[in-house]
């Protein structure tokens, strides 16, 4: 017999997943972390292993999984463009077969299930800021489509399982999030710029740096994720999850160089195809429903992240 809530976190060893596991353990739950370590390593969750309420299973969610749980957070999926374009077919399989398996599991055990969707469902958006009712502007055959269309199809599956089988779903659209435990070599802009600055290597700006992103610190995002999951009002999203403060990539580069007191120079590289020109969430729904507001300003979150990467470099323990 189980009295404690048992929560499954897929992708639990990843950047966001490891912070989520930590938060759920702190709430007193039993946490089952499922991961195939495609873009992560055990080091992200090593500190959780001594906790008797924490368990880790090496498993690829494109294959069926039979467990008894009360809640599922489906985060498993490579998230950085370099990682998700490395094996695009596997990325789409993870998004779609993974979603079907986790939805099948949720259906069998009657578990509530959260999907980590993405602002990429909006593609290169033609409205700004992006509201949840915007249908998006995605190139269905471009290099990013393995991820964008995979995540769009996963959203469709979540709503079909809700309508057809009465599943209790939550769909959150995550915008760019950063913080400690991002992979140092995953190619995302925040990790790239900080690693380059700390090593006094050139800061690689793709294009002229005028494209924008809105960066959310991991603690703020995880707080909203749990609030949303715990909402029993019947609201299932989609919900924009991110920080609406928008910066150009050039602003970000300059801020990182300043904060690290780096001698790095800026080096302009070619802009990848289909790179969205602007991105900023409209977070009115999160504000109204949960009174949620990001607490970390960019320089505060960057300070935490810089100190994490500095330690990695000092210990020489990154691949
Ligand atoms: P991450 O790469 O650090 O974590 C993803 C985790 O999923 C890794 O531990 C990886 O090994 C695991 N994984 C990948 N494929 C798997 C599979 N088939 N089976 C089991 N495990 C698998 O990325 P993250 O930033 O922590 O992202 C987590 C989730 O949030 C992803 O679904 C991503 O699409 C979504 N998201 C993240 C952001 C962001 O800015 N960080 C933005 C939008 C959406
Ligand atoms: N599934 C799973 N774990 C479970 C139940 C189902 O991994 O506990 C997988 C199973 O492989 C199935 C998929 O989820 O293919 C979808 O399940 P569903 O019940 O919707 O469909 P069906 O079993 O009818 O194909
Ligand atoms: N970018 C950059 N230099 C880098 C890595 C990324 O200029 O070294 C740019 C990238 O072209 C994009 C933005 O930063 O415009 C955010 O890229 P990231 O890969 O972090 O996320 P996404 O494009 O998925 O928002």
UniProtKB/TrEMBL annotation:
One of its GO terms (cellular component) is cytoplasm. It holds the Pfam family GDP_Man_Dehyd. Its EC number is 4.1.1.35. It is found in: Cytoplasm; Golgi apparatus, Golgi stack membrane. Pathway: Nucleotide-sugar biosynthesis; UDP-alpha-D-xylose biosynthesis; UDP-alpha-D-xylose from UDP-alpha-D-glucuronate: step 1/1. GO terms for molecular function: NAD+ binding; UDP-glucuronate decarboxylase activity. One of its GO terms (biological process) is UDP-D-xylose biosynthetic process. It is a single-pass type II membrane protein. Its main location: cytoplasm. This is UDP-glucuronate decarboxylase. The lineage of its organism: Bacteria, Pseudomonadati, Thermodesulfobacteriota, Desulfovibrionia, Desulfovibrionales.
């Amino acid at each position: 017999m189980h009295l404690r809530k048992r929560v499954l976190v897929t992708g639990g060893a990843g950047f966001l997943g490891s912070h989520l596991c930590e938060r759920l353990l702190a709430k007193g739950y039993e946490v089952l972390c499922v991961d195939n370590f495609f873009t992560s390593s055990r080091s992200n969750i090593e500190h959780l292993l001594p906790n008797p309420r924490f368990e880790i299973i090496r498993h690829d969610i494109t294959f069926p999984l039979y467990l008894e749980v009360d809640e599922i957070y489906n985060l498993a999926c490579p998230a950085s463009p370099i990682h998700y374009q490395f094996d695009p077919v596997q990325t789409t399989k993870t998004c779609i077969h993974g979603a079907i398996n986790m939805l099948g599991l949720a259906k069998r055990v009657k578990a509530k299930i959260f999907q980590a969707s993405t602002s990429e469902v909006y593609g290169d958006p033609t409205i700004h800021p992006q509201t949840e009712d915007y249908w998006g502007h995605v190139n269905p055959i471009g290099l990013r489509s393995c991820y964008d269309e995979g995540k769009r199809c996963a959203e469709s599956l979540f709503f079909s399982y809700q309508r057809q089988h009465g599943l209790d779903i939550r769909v959150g659209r995550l915008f760019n999030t950063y913080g400690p435990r991002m992979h140092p070599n995953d190619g995302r802009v925040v990790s790239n710029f900080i690693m380059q600055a700390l090593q006094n290597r050139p800061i690689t700006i793709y294009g002229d740096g005028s494209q924008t992103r809105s960066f959310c610190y991991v603690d703020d995002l995880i707080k909203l994720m749990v609030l949303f999951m715990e909402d029993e009002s019947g609201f299932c999203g989609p919900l924009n999850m991110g920080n609406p403060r928008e910066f150009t990539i050039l602003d970000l580069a300059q801020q990182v160089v300043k904060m690290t007191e780096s001698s790095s120079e800026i080096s302009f590289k070619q802009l990848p195809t289909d790179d969205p020109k602007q991105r900023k969430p409209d977070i009115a729904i999160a504000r109204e429903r949960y009174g949620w507001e990001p607490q970390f300003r960019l320089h505060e979150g960057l300070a935490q992240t810089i100190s994490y990467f500095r330690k990695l470099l000092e210990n020489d323990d990154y691949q």
